[in-house]
Write a structure and sequence with these properties.
Elements lengths: L1 E9 L4 E4 L3 E3 L4 E5 L6 H8 L7 E6 L2 E2 L5 H11 E4 L11 H11 L6 H10 L15 H13 L5 E5 L7 H18 L2 E6 L2 H6 L10 E5 L5 E3 L1
Parallel strand pairs: 4-9, 4-10, 7-8, 8-9
Antiparallel strand pairs: 1-2, 1-3, 1-5, 2-11, 5-6
Helix pairs in contact: 3-5, 4-5, 5-6
The structure holds adenosine-5'-triphosphate.
The site of adenosine-5'-triphosphate (ATP) has 14 residues, from strand 2 and helix 1.
Protein name: ATP-binding cassette domain-containing protein
Organism: Rhodoferax mekongensis
Keywords: ATP-binding, Cell membrane, Membrane, Nucleotide-binding
């Protein structure tokens, strides 16, 4: 779940982003759209407790994250948030399996090869466990990064521009995989994108509590204060 109220973020230069309130129930999907510079990355960083809001309340996976700082924020993020970045950040020197193991070490967990293989298998890439990232296609690398993102069973999965530079067919596959993966884990999914195709690839927003929601940011929410 992600609940926000009166959320704002102020950059050191003095400009402040103001975000619309959201009420995203656990297991629902939020399409976060808006043009470049409208604040999508900032919103994701707030939800992941990478930065602290200048004002407002923000609850993510049952945690009031606005007050989290430093090591407490890191520990909470490692367990609660799965992140699929636009640049996948797979370590080129490590095999696929080692890349996933690194996520376990980083979260202070023991290496668990069985969980790694389960995660890779669910995304159809278990046979690639011994390869280096440089030996993967773009689509395979994205599946590996998605397996890493859900390895620790996060309650919230954040995907940043997951269809950037993909053709139509690959974009549809990427969105389908994200929806299926989040649903399998019961995770709340946020897809942040300025790719208009994504809006066509997910079901329309409904007016119920569970399901699909859309949040469109506009540049005007950036104000000089
Ligand atoms: N470090 C910073 N200092 C000052 N302003 C910043 C900083 N980072 C981002 N901004 C501004 O905040 C606004 C939102 O930026 P943000 O990166 O969140 O937008 P975005 O929607 O993710 O853009 P894109 O799609 O291009 O990644 C922009 O106007 C940007 O110029």
């Amino acid at each position: 779940m992600i609940h926000s109220q009166g959320l704002r973020y102020r950059y050191s230069g003095g400009s402040e982003l103001r975000f619309p309130d959201v009420q995203v129930p656990q297991g629902a999907v939020l399409l976060l759209s808006g043009p470049s510079g409208s604040g999508k990355s900032t919103w994701l960083a707030l939800v992941a407790a990478l930065v602290a809001p200048s004002a407002g309340a923000l609850q993510v996976a049952g945690q009031e994250v606005a007050a989290l700082r430093g090591a407490a924020a890191d520990a909470w993020r490692a367990g609660a948030i799965g992140f699929l970045p636009q640049k996948l950040h797979l370590s080129e020197a490590l095999t696929v399996q080692q890349n996933l193991a690194m996520a376990q070490w980083a979260a202070g967990r023991d290496e668990d090869i069985a969980s790694i293989h389960t995660a890779l298998n669910a995304l159809g890439v278990a046979d690639l466990a011994g390869r280096l990232p440089g030996q993967l296609s773009g689509g395979q690398a994205q599946r590996v990064a998605l397996a890493r993102a859900v390895l620790l069973k996060p309650q919230v999965l954040l995907a940043d521009e997951p269809t950037a530079s993909l053709d139509d067919e690959a974009a549809a596959q990427a969105v389908g995989l994200l929806l299926a993966t989040a649903a399998r884990h019961g995770a709340t999914l946020v897809i942040a994108t300025h790719d208009a195709r994504v809006a066509e690839l997910i079901p329309p927003a409904d007016d119920g509590q569970i399901g699909f929601q859309r949040l469109s940011l506009v540049r005007e929410q950036l104000s000089k204060a």
